[in-house]
């Protein structure tokens, strides 16, 4: 029996929404994108026509007032995540909000209060947490394939110096830590299965934009350590490695996994440094945005928790805040989620 699809509305015509998330959600078994809004009615109509969406609204308020819309996908610029997610919750809509869900812990906690008051589901769009390759890595670690997990090492970078890009505006939540550093943070917390005790960081800021363009972060966990470097002005690259007492796991394309080719994880039994003991697991091609949308929609239909609830988003933002404080103070800082 086919499920009754959740009717989704999308706030804005952001590139990630139009190019990736909406087409992916339209392929889902549990999700139907039935409306899109833009403050420019022409843009809304163009996007709706291109994507085969039945309703186009010339304001976000109009979309939120549509009684048929059950859930909202919010891909607006970072500084608009909380204000419009709040309005959506108050309109009785469930909300899937792009990462980072907020600019501060305090902002996210305001959203938590609104969720509980309005009786809706609100989640952060970390699509990696429902991708089969990440589920497999966590399973392998949990089953002790690499012994005891002791260290996580990651890199995530790309090059962009466009002053018109929203990621180049610090007051809009721009910079590398908010845009991509949040990924190694959330996945390290997830795979370790615990929160970091303290955080150290160094950051270099763009002299023109004022955004962090090169950051390196150390997170100390009870079970081990996680370190990563992220940059918005460096060679495009991404990799995550999980080092245990007996072996190692490496994810080839951890974050921007392509939907049209398999992903690969490398499992090293540690017999030597030449890679003799490395075996490759191929994860069949899938669209992580389709999976994310359906997981959220299914949570709505079945009354279950969403993949990345607000409590997790708050804990992640606490680590991000600690990293910024550590970069300023030159000292270890403790994440503060309250």
Give an overview of the whole structure.
The termini are far apart. 48% of the residues are buried. This protein has an eight-stranded mixed β-sheet with strand order 8-9-10-7-11-12-13-14, covered by helices on one side. It is of the alpha/beta class and 338 residues long. Helix content is 34%, strand content 27%. The longest helix has 20 residues, at 310-329. It is built from nine helices and 14 strands.
Which features characterize this protein?
single chain, alpha/beta, 8-stranded mixed sheet, 6-stranded parallel sheet, 9 helices, 14 strands, 34% helix, globular
Q: What's the β-strand tally?
A: 14
Largest sheet: 8 strands, mixed
Low-confidence stretches: none
Shape: globular
Following the backbone from N to C, one meets helices and strands in this order, namely EHEHEHEHEHEHEHEEEEEEEHH
Radius of gyration, taken over Cα atoms and rounded to an integer in Å? 20 Å
The count of helical stretches stands at: 9
Mean pLDDT: 96
Q: Termini separation (Å)? A: 44 Å
Helicity level, as a percent range? 25-40%
Structural class: alpha/beta
Strand order, largest beta sheet: 8-9-10-7-11-12-13-14
Beta content comes to 25-35%
SSE layout and pairings?
Elements (H helix, E strand, L loop, with lengths): L5 E6 L3 H11 L5 E7 L3 H11 L3 E3 L2 H6 L5 E4 L6 H10 L3 E4 L7 H14 L3 E3 L7 H11 L6 E11 L16 H17 L5 E8 L6 E9 L4 E7 L1 E12 L3 E4 L11 E6 L9 E6 L4 H15 L7 H20 L9
